[in-house]
User: What shape does this take?
Amino acid sequence: MSAALKYTLGRIGLFVAVLAALWLVDMNVFLKLMLALAFSAALSFFLLRGWRDEMAEEMASAAERRRTEKERLRSALAGEDDQPPTTPDQPSR
Assistant: This one.
């Protein structure tokens, strides 16, 4: 399972758990939702730190791969790749 999916499901699970705990309190539904959002965000900061760091590393490595591939494609389009140059009588690839 990807780190982003684990973290997202963890955040949703925390929100549902806090909302279920607040459901027993007699107050406005909108206020319950807002409090559940705030408390679950604060709890996730501490409880889901490992999954958040794992997701950040996964995203950073994906960004590095995209950056490397983009640079490789740019150099290939600019003619700076490692292929030997073609002569006018040879067809280009």
Remarks:
- The mean pLDDT is 89.
